[in-house]
Amino acid sequence: MTYEVKSLNEECGLFGIWGHPDAAKLTYFGLHALQHRGQEGAGIIANNDGQLKGHRDLGLLSDVFKDEKQFDRLAGKAAIGHVRYATAGSASIDNVQPFLFNFHDAQFGLCHNGNLTNTRTLKRDLESKGAIFHSNSDTEILMHLIRRGYSVGLLDNVKSALNTVKGGFAYLLMTEDKIIAALDPNGFRPLAIGRLVNGAYVIASETCALDVVGATFVQDVLPGQIVIIDDAGIHIDSYTTEADLKICSMEFIYFARPDSNIYGVNVHTARKNMGRILAKENPNIEADIVVGVPNSSLSAASGFAEESGLPYEMGLVKNQYIQRTFIQPTQELREQGVRMKLSGVRSVVAGKRVVMVDDSIVRGTTSKRIVALLKAAGAAEVHVVIASPPLAYPCFYGIDIQTRQELIAANHSVSEINDIIGSDSLHFLSIDGLKAGIGLGDQICTSYFDGIYPTPLYDYEADYNLGLKAKVSFY
Amino acid sequence: MTYEVKSLNEECGLFGIWGHPDAAKLTYFGLHALQHRGQEGAGIIANNDGQLKGHRDLGLLSDVFKDEKQFDRLAGKAAIGHVRYATAGSASIDNVQPFLFNFHDAQFGLCHNGNLTNTRTLKRDLESKGAIFHSNSDTEILMHLIRRGYSVGLLDNVKSALNTVKGGFAYLLMTEDKIIAALDPNGFRPLAIGRLVNGAYVIASETCALDVVGATFVQDVLPGQIVIIDDAGIHIDSYTTEADLKICSMEFIYFARPDSNIYGVNVHTARKNMGRILAKENPNIEADIVVGVPNSSLSAASGFAEESGLPYEMGLVKNQYIQRTFIQPTQELREQGVRMKLSGVRSVVAGKRVVMVDDSIVRGTTSKRIVALLKAAGAAEVHVVIASPPLAYPCFYGIDIQTRQELIAANHSVSEINDIIGSDSLHFLSIDGLKAGIGLGDQICTSYFDGIYPTPLYDYEADYNLGLKAKVSFY
Amino acid sequence: MTYEVKSLNEECGLFGIWGHPDAAKLTYFGLHALQHRGQEGAGIIANNDGQLKGHRDLGLLSDVFKDEKQFDRLAGKAAIGHVRYATAGSASIDNVQPFLFNFHDAQFGLCHNGNLTNTRTLKRDLESKGAIFHSNSDTEILMHLIRRGYSVGLLDNVKSALNTVKGGFAYLLMTEDKIIAALDPNGFRPLAIGRLVNGAYVIASETCALDVVGATFVQDVLPGQIVIIDDAGIHIDSYTTEADLKICSMEFIYFARPDSNIYGVNVHTARKNMGRILAKENPNIEADIVVGVPNSSLSAASGFAEESGLPYEMGLVKNQYIQRTFIQPTQELREQGVRMKLSGVRSVVAGKRVVMVDDSIVRGTTSKRIVALLKAAGAAEVHVVIASPPLAYPCFYGIDIQTRQELIAANHSVSEINDIIGSDSLHFLSIDGLKAGIGLGDQICTSYFDGIYPTPLYDYEADYNLGLKAKVSFY
Amino acid sequence: MTYEVKSLNEECGLFGIWGHPDAAKLTYFGLHALQHRGQEGAGIIANNDGQLKGHRDLGLLSDVFKDEKQFDRLAGKAAIGHVRYATAGSASIDNVQPFLFNFHDAQFGLCHNGNLTNTRTLKRDLESKGAIFHSNSDTEILMHLIRRGYSVGLLDNVKSALNTVKGGFAYLLMTEDKIIAALDPNGFRPLAIGRLVNGAYVIASETCALDVVGATFVQDVLPGQIVIIDDAGIHIDSYTTEADLKICSMEFIYFARPDSNIYGVNVHTARKNMGRILAKENPNIEADIVVGVPNSSLSAASGFAEESGLPYEMGLVKNQYIQRTFIQPTQELREQGVRMKLSGVRSVVAGKRVVMVDDSIVRGTTSKRIVALLKAAGAAEVHVVIASPPLAYPCFYGIDIQTRQELIAANHSVSEINDIIGSDSLHFLSIDGLKAGIGLGDQICTSYFDGIYPTPLYDYEADYNLGLKAKVSFY
């Protein structure tokens, strides 16, 4: 959530609903709870008796939807919506989802969370057959595959398309009379089903979005499943038999909201557990207080504190108004001590040996800054404990870690990192500790830590082996 | 900070600096740290070799200053700035400070935190002598008094004016060659002095704003003091001998940032202490977990947890994107369970007896909603503990509690409030506990709790005695 | 240009340039001169050494491009641009041109002025082959046809595509190393080539855009021609031998700017001629003064005045600030005489017999209002003379006259219209007079007046024969 | 109206109404017709049963009022409004009128068209007595004088204040129960009274604003008059007996809308007369066509054409979309021939000897550009005729001609100007011709042409005599 200082970005949040007169408005509220999954753009497509209309734009959800009147156009009992994450280059409205496709014989709305691994191959192949893509996203590919399917019914063509795309994906497809949701065979991305009091079904990237609209949790969508929601209710099927759950561990470590549950595991509880285990794995840190980096590391910090018996203190305060602040200190002012996002609380940390708990280290620059900030506030020692293992490998399934070059842990030992960030000691959670903290055994994907990818990498294989993975924008 | 759900509002934040080439920019950063003290409007006046220029507008600081280029107009080595709190009726640019006064023989910039108690009398008197006021604020009065002073030098006229206005005030006055700061004889509002590495002096409503610009704390401005900052450095004087510190206890309870220190007391620590004492005062609550209402009650909650030995859990999650969200659920949707600001975390609270820690109760509506939300998330019992005494009397020194009618504790017993908000038990901190938690003895103002006002109330006296205090807009 | 009160709308303006370091900026200035051809949206694609980047948005050109810095992204020596006309339903950014197509092996920018007559057939056929369209416009079709072409070189595929689309079109296609322009076989839409002092070639919908950028007129693009502009200069070819010029007469009557020349005919001069001939055809109108409806009818009015010997007076004044005025008088206020766009000048028209010259009558509502306005200002008589024949048939080549139902002259005799609009007499220019005024003989399209279409109507044929042409949005 | 290229600016437009349920809305429409008198800012104050509320902002009227809902706050049967002209330095919301003054015992709305000549003296005097001014405008002075008046009733204090201020002024003062309008003793600025069908009275700077709201003209406000409009109807009085009409001739030459009448003279007709007389005064210009500079010179040009017998042609076309265009050609592009505002029509002017009619020459830069533009379009000769005398003296009564230095005719002979602007000959209207054209004899102010000021200049006297008049911003 401290997305300003991290280079980790989730690839989006999804919400869909079928069967409520305020479908678009509920989608808005659902997306509002998923805003942390994407701040670049947002959109909603509503289905009004078979006619699809949409609105989407760049910006936060509250920028895109400012006016109650916007929902007049989005009447209807069903809707899907999307929030999209922020990257510099691709900040074009063309990439903001859901996409609305108008054919002479049908309309479709489509949105996507995740990243395909055979995008390049599929795009080239489709383009050589006359296909024209309008966005940089790989979401459109599914629509092309569906429309070019050889089967008779829509559903068969969707299933066939789902078997053609590879990688990490959660899709919502709105047709004139149903919502079709689907999850990749490894379930890299979370997707949960809920039900409203009136019987309407909702589907969302995280359960916090179900809670916000007052829905009761029904079940997680399972790997390889395809879910159809329409006037007849809900129907769950599988498009493949080769499913093998490998939910992204980063969802637990950093991305998901603490009040969400994924496969029965509460994210706050998992983080607190990771903090506890981290304390167990590092029993010999001599310190006076435990301080979490707000906001994403507070759960882990409280776990660490409880386990270690050290008091849990608010030694760092985050400015709540940083989100849309355009004026930034110059380098010169920064050197004079001007800072905006985080403040160290002198009266809490001065003279203290501080255990600083953070969720992860990407480039190391943020950690370095926070350590310096605590020391400037008088901390006698700063021991950095990270509630996840060293991040050493890129992700190809939907998290924006693009190259090994940017990852400090891919290029430096723990001891070197300790020197670089200026901490007095540095400790990472073990992979086993991570698994124990989450409690889903081997059903989580830990490739960022161990480089073991649960699937072939297709287009990325060659680059990856060369250690020279280019920017995604290349494709 | 959960200002959306409270009806408590601080009356503003001040920042001033003399002696740095980036004075306006530093003022911006300082105000950014004080944004929680006022979200309605913001402004900065810079002093460029004796020429004053300003920019101010309605909105958050980051809305008012969006563009680096705006600071080109605000060149100069000195600046003052202001953030203003939000009320419905007076949302006019005319009221946004600092005010810039252009006379044929001088320029002044003026801003103010606090509330005068003899505004009506002074305004009528001045108007009867031909004065014209341009805003609804009572800030202008000081300028009129200064300009109509009979003394020879500016400083004597300022002192005379400071002795004429009554109530709570912290002023910053920018002239062509100095900044003059002043605090009321009771020091109701906080005001602190800091120094930058380059020797420049800064002055701010809270020390967190000193930290943000890299300034070292020098001292708090004391009641009845007048501070002059200019090229010669800093000079501290008194305009009255009848000073008697009565710093607003609400600054500690709710308003100030946890990383600020006021008269040597860290706000987070004070809150944690209050939480501890609250636990001591209520040793018999049988519960499983402690949950704080984010964000302002987290310190108190951790204190309560430590003292009581109960685990401190994240049972409530606050949406971080709520600040500028315009679309709100209808009453009907709210009844269906749609909510946006706070979520109860089912997996944390379900089946648990919860101690819910909040900082204060104003009308009771928010508490009622949060209790319901925890119960809807499965909490077996909800015991509400409030880290301050019952709020039963209005404030006339700068906090927007306008009438006794709105205050639930002015009209209901604790037991009645417990029924109204639906909690299983309800406990307030005692006034003695509050004093002990803050640790400044009788130097705090507790009039909201005991109705004992440290000064005469002047214009408000009659209304107040009748128990029919009208809206401030009446004056 | 009084586009607010007319229901006649041009389908767009085009501008392209190859060979100037400020290509995008010059495109901006060129489009600025073509703004009257489309106020809904605008865009520019620049070519920077083979890399295409674009910016487009809804709104007037000056809204879309507000900041010099926007042109930093649009560096390069070549650019194409487009302004688009306003319709209610399709006001989506998806329809704003030029379109930028990114293929794995190429980039294209494409924009279009005109209307195809076989859109529906082509779209259905292409969709049945897997094509996906992203806008409602028929512009995309050309790109699909080109990419699906069977020929080896791009140019042959472009030519083949140009022979497949039917109707009215002027295209600009930007590739990595050239601009390709093309005009339909009847040259319904104008398109002119110019040259800058530095040798760069420019191409634009009207010559006024050449003038504005300081270009010298080279020649009109002729029907059926395809023009290639690249580093080697300009190359003009034909993609068909069946060319037959039928330039839209409405360009002369109403759309084009008076300072533009089309096929050697100055628009102002043509209009003045039409006014003269109208006066000759109606020698017996007894009147005192001639008043033109500003701004589009002023040329015709001055011609009428000169020929008739009557003084030309400013009896109607148009408010110049009407363009973006959102507040409109209610029906009740309108009945009380409140009006905003046009004012009758009492001291000019009071007691006078007025010849009111207008360019055309579409629905009759505007004419009725202006006649009433002149009478309210005291005109003794109002004789309406229209500098074009009665508008009785729709256009399928790029002007937004959609159905016969809306056209008053398709449903009423001249005498009936005279009664409806409340004039004392009403006179239209004859078709022969129109031709004589323009001076291009039978090389103009007059189908709106005589129902004789120079081409088959394809998709529209059936609807048209039934007299029940549906809205274009149907397709 | 070609305000972009002139340095002549009117000082504002006024509108007031008493007695209509849609008073604020009608004020909006009235101001819309007066927009040419001021584009910097606009505002409306409405009177709702004695309670005054207002809205004002920088920008065009249509920017300031974008939403019907804004008029909900402006309910009431009476309103006053103002449009303000644009200068660079003073573009602050503080200066946008009408001003709303809130006293403990009364409310006032005040707006002003004109310029006082004893501002400096009065401001210094008032400030020395404790007055505080909030804007740079001299409008506030009247309010201070009224509030400091020694008389018993408001009206007497207003009259007394009107006798204290000197220079050019038209005021509208809204009180709780009436509108008070007043004109300076020379009537430098126009002000007209009208009546609606329902009996409500309206008052406006120009009659075109009466027409637009459907009001019938009643009379011009005469010099030295004070007009009271309230529920009892209208009451006209005088505050001085020393009235002597000297209406600004520039209103007829350039500022006022052609459909306005001032003291019975229609502006278009006056301009056409000036053009005729200009032709009579210069019978020997050998030319082929007459071309007016759009839009303000078209009336004069048609008069010139009729008198001279030369055809009146559209040789110059003005881009109608220039108003809010931010992107401007660089000097380099301008030299390459890029232009945006005016185009010369080659096919009209090529090879022709052109009489170019303009209303006035201020600095000469615009004339030079237009002459060059006509020659670039092929004009064989360009004879410039100006429908006013040489502008050689500043105005102190409300037109923004600040110093003699900027005025080309103050520093150069006609022959020199002819050389500077590059015309083949140059001719100005004589002062007698101007008077004859307007037809009000010596009742017009011609000080810009002859330096004879109808009043003492007060504050400006010394500067003026020294020929070194400083910028107004000095005061």
Automatic annotation (TrEMBL), chains A, B, C, D:
Keywords: Glutamine amidotransferase, Glycosyltransferase, Magnesium, Metal-binding, Purine biosynthesis, Transferase. The keyword Glycosyltransferase applies. It catalyses: 5-phospho-beta-D-ribosylamine + L-glutamate + diphosphate = 5-phospho-alpha-D-ribose 1-diphosphate + L-glutamine + H2O. Binds 1 Mg(2+) ion per subunit. Mg(2+) binds at residues 296, 358-359. Its EC number is 2.4.2.14. The keyword Electron transport does not apply. Residues 12-232 form the Glutamine amidotransferase type-2 domain. InterPro entries: GATase_2_dom, Ntn_hydrolases_N, PRTase-like, PRTase_dom, PurF, PurF_N. Pathway: Purine metabolism; IMP biosynthesis via de novo pathway; N(1)-(5-phospho-D-ribosyl)glycinamide from 5-phospho-alpha-D-ribose 1-diphosphate: step 1/2. PROSITE patterns: GATASE_TYPE_2. It is an enzyme of class 2 (transferase). Its cofactor is Mg(2+). It comes from the Bacteria. GO terms for biological process: 'de novo' IMP biosynthetic process; purine nucleobase biosynthetic process. Pfam families: GATase_7, Pribosyltran. The active site is at residue 12. GO terms for molecular function: amidophosphoribosyltransferase activity; magnesium ion binding. PANTHER family: AMIDOPHOSPHORIBOSYLTRANSFERASE (PTHR11907). Catalyzes the formation of phosphoribosylamine from phosphoribosylpyrophosphate (PRPP) and glutamine. In the C-terminal section; belongs to the purine/pyrimidine phosphoribosyltransferase family. This is Amidophosphoribosyltransferase. The gene is purF.
